[in-house]
Amino acid sequence: MPAKPPAEAPAGPPPAARRLMTVAAATLIAAAAAPATLAYAFPSATVSPTAVAPGGRVALSVAGCGTQVARVTSTAFGEVRLTPGNQTAASLIGSATVFNNANSGAHRVIFECGGPGGERVTLSLQVTTGAARGGTGGSIGSMSPGQIAVGSALTAGALGAGVWVMRRRAAAS
Description:
The protein is 29% helix and 29% strand. The chain is of the alpha+beta class and 173 residues long. The termini are far apart.
């Protein structure tokens, strides 16, 4: 029986195919690393605060429009144009004053990227009765002097214990 010639190692794909595979792999890696929001980002909007009294101001912001202008409309304040804070800003910002005679309750706030006919985001703004509480924000309005004294004593005790622990650590070192 004649001897078989030794099997040759496979040469692999031709050079053109290797280049094509390398380019395809690099493209997949770059696509995976790029943020998905670049392609088809859905705009996101904010109204702050979400509850306001008639005559109060709200801050309006929308991101992901892909335009340099947006329009915001509401029965609470009418129409407002949003523009970028600077040339490199990704968000469009603006503010509005709620009408003094705005009805209490929920009002739709419609953000339109690029103006009428653009992508829309709808949020809700709650118009409340009366004015907002100022000063401490109502955080101590319903507390008795005794409750305030007990809270102050507990806070002072916690601070004193913290100082005592820190001094013991310093002395032990």
